[in-house]
Amino acid sequence: MRSFPRMLRFWTALVVILHLGAFAVAPATAGLVASQVTGTTDIASVRDADMQVVQRALENKVVAQKLADYGVAAEDAQLKLATMSDSELHTLASATPGLPTGADGTTGAIIGVLVVVILVIIVLKLMNRQVVVR
């Protein structure tokens, strides 16, 4: 049984050589793309950026609960933010990166523990050990 006729082999080899030659002609280049203003941002100054960081921190459940515990309403906190100086606002914004973003973090911890337990069980199974849960 013959695999390819002679002419088909010739044309297939020619097409492959032409394609490989076309791809190897121009070397790949990479570089940084200049940034462009999209007009969708509402941050016009450092104060606006700091204000956004602090407002996101105030939306955190833990921070909101602590403010409520101290008797500070959310509206009062927003009014105080508006009257702060730039340096005070920047100091407050610099202190917020330690706060958790989004959830309280327990979900991630639970998932992490479950992943570790599953990995241990898989390793024990691969070592032909018996896993007994009582």
Summarize the structure.
The chain is mainly alpha-helical and 134 residues long.
Task: Please give a structural write-up.
The protein has 134 residues and is mainly α. Among the domains are: 42-102, no CATH class; 104-134. Helices cover 62% and strands 0% of the residues. The protein contains six helices and no strands. It has helices spanning 6-25, 46-58, 61-69, 74-83, 86-95, 106-126. Helix 2 (46-58) runs antiparallel to helix 4 and helix 2 (46-58) crosses helix 5. The radius of gyration is 31 Å and the shape is flat. The N and C termini lie far apart (63 Å). The model has no long low-confidence stretch (mean pLDDT 77).
Fold topology:
Layout (H helix, E strand, L loop, with lengths): L5 H20 L20 H13 L2 H9 L4 H10 L2 H10 L10 H21 L8
Helix pairs in contact: 2-4, 2-5
